[in-house]
Amino acid sequence: MDEARIARRGLGPRLWLAGGWLLLALLAAIFAPLVAPQDPLAQDLMLERLPPFWMSGAEPGYWLGTDSLGRDLLSRLIFGGRIAFIVAFAAAIAACLVGSTLGLIAGYFGGWADRIISRIVDVWMAFPPVLFAILLVAVLGTGLSSVILAIAIIDWTRFCRVIRAEAMGQSRMDYVENARIAGYGRIGIMLREVLPNVVPSIVALLSLEMGIAIIVEAILSFVNLSISTDDPTWGGIIAEGRLSIHQAWWVLVFPLITLILTVLSFSQFGEALKTRFDPVLR
Amino acid sequence: MSACLDIANLSAVLPNGLRVLRSVSLSVQPGEVRALVGESGAGKTMIGKAVLGVLPSSVRIVEGTMTLEGEDLGRLHPKARRTLIGARTALIPQDPLTALNPSRRIGPQMTDRLVRILGWSTQKADTRIRQLLDEVQIRDPDRVLKSYPHELSGGMRQRVLIAAAFAAEPRLIVADEPTTALDVTVQKQILRLIAELQREHGTAILFVTHDLGVVAKISQKVSVLYAGKVVEEADTAALFASPRHPYTRALMAATPRYTDPFASLKPVDETVLAGLAAEITAADQAWRRPHG
User: In chain B, whose CA is at the least distance from the CA of A192?
Assistant: First the structure.
């Protein structure tokens, strides 16, 4: 009892800080047109490379400065968040559904099902993921849906491997045997006895995967293979910032900080959620 | 009266050809407690698992029959067998800590089986479960039913499992060392509870144990098992009064006594084990010949 309370208290700030940042970023992305101080696409060469607000030469209304085309950095980050979150949710959920289902089947049924699924996972994981992603997008064509699809196609194996191992451990438990004696069918046991015990892991992985999806999307944007070039994306901004790092470091640094904070928050949030979902740890 | 459970000539092998059960025959009459006693690795649990249809996939039954309530389990379609076993039997497991699903509350875990498998109404199942919880002397059923397994003590969990086992009025319960994982003071209470419920419900029990003290307390019949072979079978009283097989005698001599705590523990005598080994080798050779 006490242990549980201590664990919860220890996780408190983590959960709130990570959750707070994610909520802030998510709300900003959803209400981007209302929140963003400027039009993210408006160029003004009179305002190029304005520094952030605390430096001399800053203009009011351009809090984080502007890039080399005079576009407001903060507004671009906020709008870039839209793409980031859409990709994060859609890709992670798709990867989770495919990976968890296959992992559950492989781990619980074992035998041939396991052998086939595990071999596919092995082959899949032999590809370098980023290269694989670039290849996939090159084949599928750029655009939001192909980015999402590419990430899901690459990353379902993460779910599959973890959930398979957990389901395998679960299937040896006495309560699974007891359910078999009672006369439950195999699929019933899988859903009723095994699945609830792997849900905490699925939730943690899902959150982690959202962070990974954001990184992959940023990488694809960075090499100009994500969505159309007009809409700001975090990776795209980073790519632009790299070119002007000596004149305007902020164009590189702020999107990097945003990206790191978001990815870190997703992984921390996932850990905290896992604890909340687990009746034994709770 | 036909037997509740009748095992005849049951042999099972591992993939490497080793026999884990050697032509085991035993029967449990309705309402009777049959103890299955032997040291660890003797195949006691294996027999229980065979009856319940949950043998590990590596173990293969190569001969013999198991008849549950007059139905030959080997001849039934697997689905029909599952249904029969599910409806007529139950298990009281060895380790109450792993026998309950940690992520589900006790209430649904207990009623689920009655509702989903046996088709009872939720109302009826709930009433039944509360009645059983009362019989196993759980005084605050509301709290227990709402709890997760980790919120209950080992003894409480075993009570829950006993209540669950008796809930569907099975004809046969396999109790697989139900007191081994508990501490000594709780062991006694649990044993008394099982005996009490068994008498009231008239359920036959196949009671697997390595503890001769437990055998004496709870059973009417005993089968002594060594290396997957029944070496002696008798009424409990007769067995304790005059064990016939030297292994049984040695096993009894090896039981530690509270009255003489300073006497060192006696292992089973080596000449007895050598005799057993010879007996088993001879049996194996005789068994292999007709099978090639």
Answer: B104
